[in-house]
Amino acid sequence: FDRPRGVRPEVEALRARVSGRTVVVTGASSGIGEALANRLADADAKVLLVARSGEKLEEMKQQIEVRGGSAFAYSADLSNAEDTQRLVQAILDDHETVDILVNNAGMSIRRSVAKSYDRVHDFERTLSLNFLGAVRLIMGFLPGMRARRTGQIINVSTIGVQVNVPRYGAYVASKAALDAFSRVLAVEVLK
């Protein structure tokens, strides 16, 4: 048994899958995205940190590098089509390929439909980030994955899509759209 003392089997399993691979993590400055980015970096992935907060991303990048990991920070507003396209091009210019894309960035608005009659813009903003931002990134990185015949796309969703959580209409609708798109995409790119 030659596992280094203190290394958990799940860490080894993750390292076997991501070591040396280029992984984009959106929403990397907090919550699930931050935790995932740190785990991936600790498993020897080259992590491309994406969020709006450039300052927080630079701080994370430095912390990862101090631990011996590899990280790159990219500030972008994924709800904006032009900024997302700029991000895709910058990443491809800097790294040529993306092996894994994790669409985690998202926003949620907690408001009942009755209190949203004059707030359709909340639905537009939520769809713009949670659905269209992810789709734009997929469309930017998928051609390279298909050309190499390898790659992985992970779209973070919510249990709310299955249980219809009250007061989260905009959020649940945006994630339901992403789930539906993901199912169609999976069938098309499976091979």
Describe the fold and architecture.
The chain has 191 residues and is an alpha/beta fold. Helix content is 54%, strand content 13%. The chain contains seven helices and five strands, in the order αβαβαβαβαβαα. The protein has a five-stranded parallel β-sheet with strand order 3-2-1-4-5, sandwiched between helices. α2 links the parallel β1 and β2. α4 packs parallel to α5 and α5 runs parallel beside α7. It is globular, with a radius of gyration of 18 Å. The protein starts with 8 loop residues before the first helix and ends with a helix. The mean pLDDT is 94.
Summarize the structure.
With 191 residues, this protein is of the alpha/beta class.
Strand element count: 5
Task: Characterize the biggest β-sheet.
Answer: 5 strands, parallel
What is the gyration radius calculated from CA atoms? Answer: 18 Å
Indicate the overall shape. globular
Q: Separation of termini?
A: 36 Å
The secondary-structure class comes to: alpha/beta
What is the helical fraction, as a range of percent? Answer: 40-55%
Oligomer: single chain
Order of helices and strands: HEHEHEHEHEHH
- Count of runs of 4 or more consecutive helical residues: 7
**Strand percentage, roughly?**
5-15%
Low-confidence segments: none
